[in-house]
Write a structure and sequence with these properties.
Elements lengths: L8 H10 L21 H23 L11 H12 L3 H4 L13 H27 L8 H22 L1 H12 L19 H10 L7 H21 L3 H13 L5 H17 L2 H19 L3 H13 L10 H10 L3 H7 L1 H22 L12 H8 L1 H14 L7 H16 L7 H35 L2 H12 L3 H16 L4 H11 L1 H6 L4 H12 L10 H10 L3 H11 L6 H7 L10 H24 L1 E2 L3 E2 L7 H16 L10 H25 L11
Antiparallel strand pairs: 1-2
Amino acid sequence: MSVSPAFDPQEQKRVVFDDPHGSAGNLQEAEVTRVRTLQGVWRWALVAATAATILLCINQQFSLRFLIGYTQLNTEYFYLLIALMLPFTFLIFPGTERASLDRIPWYDLVCFVVTFGAALVLMSNVRKAAEAGWEFGSAPTNVIAAGLVMWAMLMEALRRTGGWSLLLSVLPFTVYPLFSEASWLGPFRGTQSTLEQATAYHVLSGESLLGIPIQAFADTVIGFLVFGTALMMTGAGKFFINLAFALCGTFRGGAAKVCIFASGLLGMMSGSIISNVLTAGTMTIPVMKKSGFRASYAGAIEACASTGAVLAPPVMGATAFVIAQFLNVSYADVALAAIIPAALYYVGLFMQVDAYAARHGLKGIPRAELPRVMDTIKDGWYYVFVIALLIVMLLHFKRESHAPFYATALLLVLNQLFSKDTRWTLSTINKFLEVNGRTFVELVGILAGCGLLIGAFSMTGVVSSLANDLLRIAGDNAFLLLGMCAFTSLILGLGLTTTACYIFLAILVAPALEKLGLNRMAVHMFIFYWGMLSSITPPVAIASFAAAGIAGSPAMKTGWESMWVGSIIYFIPFFFVLNPALVLQGPSPYFAGLGLMGMAAFGTLFICGGIQGYQPFVGDLRGAGALEWPIRVLLVIGGFVVATPGGGIMPLSQMQVTLLGLGILLPTLLLALLLVRRQGIVPDGLRVP
């Protein structure tokens, strides 16, 4: 077996440079949509608008005063970004399935012009609006007219970028303030507004269109998108994938462990699930299939490993930046909170793959067919310095708005000095701007539309009363409310992007959970995790379907396999809500967090053994005969109990929970070991992965 194609530099360059970052899916993981590749004057217009967007962001964040003699308000800056990016939604995303991808129809050009004009009118009036309080309904007629046009265009942009499911979920709530006093609304009854009042509030206040999602995009997301794209277009994909092959390739099931390690490294830098699948999956999935993994399982492993992209710091999905805005904390705090949950997720995946490989006798890749560690590091050593700079600026200096730009500048300088193969030219810069532009356009279309959700609930003032109603329904039972939240998140996640789902529940459910005394960061991370599970959960399972396309396996089968492989992620959110030390919150969070992480990892070992049917130190559980499935179920239950933090809202202390879990596991393991040895199967112990 040869895996040399996985290390072909030309193939790597093709994968990285053709990865659209937004054409097959964006950082919000919206459903896959048909897109146009702009040509001619429209392509150059997108490149110019993207360059202007990046320069405006740099000017705003570094206070460089590009606009001499004029100090720009934040709201004017936000509207200028919207004017530059939102109109391109109608050029890049066709309005119908039958629309041509080769030419732009007249009605899309009309939408482009109308959206651009409305954004300019609102931008030119937003300063006066702040001075005169127009957002409360006293705006002039021309501003209200421009606002109505913007409202309509936002909904159409939301449909094109996120699909009908997202539009039908968001649109009713944006118009909800117009009839919010209706008696049939029950707990959703609130203060009603006229059309003029609602329009003015939506487009002029800092709580709706110009609210948290767009603020997160303008303040931090742009910089991290620029950094992620620059990293991929300087050959980082090749470096991370080759490093993964060099370190993990020889272990049993090595191809799958390479997939997890490589996708984890790439995801930490890109924050995009679909980009991760398209970049790493084209190399790892074929090698997994050659190593003996069935196609659907190979696709499932890649989907699950790539899903970690939005969980793993330092560069997480765009939702993480929205969380920071919601909680009014730095992005570094959110990234720190995600470290232990992300580590547990990838540890769980490694254990799943190791148990699967052991049960099916899958070997590693011969060392002769793999790249050498030192050669790989020699080719890409400067990436380490770039990532170190990013982390230091994020965690030590707390400069999340500046960090990605400094890291990008260092990356480009080192790349031009030390890499002959990936040095940038004018053509590369144009491609870089085009790729970023398409991602910016898609994100603005989704984030701006979702911002109206926040504005609608802010206008009506129902959030506090709704939290009290939820507490009354749940009877102040935290476990019941968490279960309701998890179920709602999963259902919403099947039709919404991760960010839209998070915004819904951050407004409606999070206040109730916080009133029960649960840690705010843990609550919002809980909502975030459950909302993004749709990436691997059918019927949506966009990551699984993208991986299935590469693997050549049935899409739905790959989706169900992904749920099985990534099942540990369904448990993790409950762990860190029960004890916020797992998200580095509370007293002595680092010491307590590491201890709880160790217990959770220990419990995960048995959960994975039960799921896959192979338990380290015992062996293949098929040797238990008719008792195989009862033993596997008990291993999962016992592992879950051991991994669960005690104390807090739990009725049992940590010691009691641990002893209960061990009371389930020890007899189960002894019985399994006795039955397996009776079959003449000698356990091989806990092998190094």
